[in-house]
Amino acid sequence: MGVWGKAISGAEDLVAAGLAAPGDLAALAPVLASYKMRITPEMVQASASAGVARQFVPRPEELERRPEELTDPIGDGAHSPAPGLTHRYPDRVILAVTHACEVYCRFCFRREVVGQSAALPEAELAAALDYIARTPAVTEVILTGGDPLSLSARRLGEVMRRLAAIPHVGVLRLHSRVPVVAPERMTQEMIAALQVGRPVYLVVHTNHAEEIGAAAEAALGRLADAGVALLSQSVLLRGVNDDPATLAALFRRLVALRVKPYYLHHCDLAPGTSHFRTTIGEGQALMQALRGRISGLCLPSYVLDIPGGFGKVPVAPPHVVEAGPGLYEVTDWQGGRHLYRDPERDQAAALAPARNSMP
Ligand SMILES: *Cc1c(COP(=O)(O)O)cnc(C)c1O
Questions:
Q1: Gap between the Cα atoms of 92 and 138, Å rounded
Q2: Active site residue 345
Q3: Does residue 312 have an active-site annotation?
Q4: Which domain, by its residues, includes 10?
Q5: From the candidates 104, 108, 177, 277, which is the catalytic residue?
Q6: With a threshold of 0.85, does the pTM exceed it?
Q7: How confident is the model at residue 308 (pLDDT cuts 50, 70, 90)?
Q8: Which of 40, 64, 88 is the last residue of a domain?
């Protein structure tokens, strides 16, 4: 093991790295036959922390399939106009450029597809780009996978340039675990591949402060210095980060590294992930515990991807409830209740035509 070693992907490697006992292997064999494992040297080292290890080390519970669990938990398949493409919202699409990842997270909502044939074949990529080019409503393209930063810098740069050549695509976004789990991949060539004359947002996936080592810190610094806007997404995971101190440490660490926490996802109903799932009530209590106690910069939006393909919605506890016409009961961060009344509107504002219809 050690940072300059190889990623581990077999049961015996787990034992050699001290992440499983020889006696566990019989129970893990069928898990590894169903779901791919890969743990980068950086994450093998960080797995000294139980909250990090639990995300990557397979467990027999993964073969327990609950009736509510779904192969396509967020219903992406229902909104796919071309292979690799998901178009659920009017102005943005997801383009899955590869099924490969640097690490295979045990709670992944795409665990039934990741790790299979890797890169999107050229014909499919061309068809996806053609769909985007003929759909002017699409102004943002979100590269995901798999992990888009597992592509070579050359291949990624080519995809980025082809996207930037479509005039109505104004914003490019990538979702990736690479800057944290394989920071050595964030070379100057990879960073240059992101710079194609369009604003680029990189949403870093990370779930625990102890995942973020010195090399990740340096990689994030290089990205921020290069003008890449950095956000993060995390998944709320039982036994990993489901307590206020762990979440606060993660979000503060990210903000200190110029990464704005964006989403905290409620764990999706992927097969064999029930040991990771909290209740919505537990998630709401955590958000309530954090609000006001840590900087607003640190607070992501707690969201649920509604099973069946209906999109993401915030599920944080409501701070305001309607108590009458124009009257609201508002709860402050310490639980105090207050009434707020909308001021009377002046006549001119009330008569003005609505200006807010969406494009
Ligand atoms: C999450 C998601 C997006 C991005 O949603 P934002 O709220 O803009 O971050 C886009 N398309 C699909 C299909 C998604 O699941």
A1: 5
A2: no
A3: yes
A4: 1-64
A5: 108
A6: yes
A7: confident
A8: 64
